[in-house]
């Protein structure tokens, strides 16, 4: 309680989303997919929002450049491929 970490994390997330506004759509899609499969509750072993944010951010850093004209489906499939490959390394 009364920890400053939460405020710092919020500011970090807001700055990152300003830098990569495309992340919002991918995060929402991932959260929706997890929710319909009942994998969004952390207390039952699901994936939380902060972890999703960090995974998507790592993928966007991996891409190095994102343009507004990108196909969202290709970015989503690329992200899913990215996290799948990470399991093997």
Helix content: 55-70%
Overall shape: it is: globular
What is the structural class?
A: mainly alpha
Q: Count of helices?
A: 4
Fraction in beta strands: under 5%
Indicate how many domains the architecture comprises: 1
What is the count of β-strands? 0
Query: What's the average pLDDT?
Result: 80
End-to-end gap: 37 Å
Low-confidence stretches: none
Rg (C-alpha, Å): 14 Å
Order of helices and strands: HHHH
Q: How is the main sheet built?
A: none
Secondary structure layout plus pairing:
Elements: H1 5-19, H2 23-36, H3 49-63, H4 72-86
Helix pairs in contact: 2-3
Task: Give a written overview of the molecule.
By secondary structure, the protein is mainly alpha-helical. The chain has one domain. It is 66% helix and 0% strand.
Defining traits:
89 residues
Summary, kept brief:
This protein has 89 residues and is mostly helical.
């Amino acid at each position: 309680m009364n920890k400053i970490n939460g405020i710092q994390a919020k500011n970090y997330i807001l700055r990152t989303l300003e830098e990569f506004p495309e992340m919002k759509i991918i995060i929402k899609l991932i959260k929706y997919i997890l929710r319909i499969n009942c994998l969004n509750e952390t207390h039952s072993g699901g994936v939380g929002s902060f972890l999703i944010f960090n995974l998507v951010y790592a993928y966007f850093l991996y891409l190095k450049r994102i343009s507004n004209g990108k196909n969202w489906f290709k970015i989503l499939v690329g992200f899913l491929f990215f996290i799948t490959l990470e399991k093997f390394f």
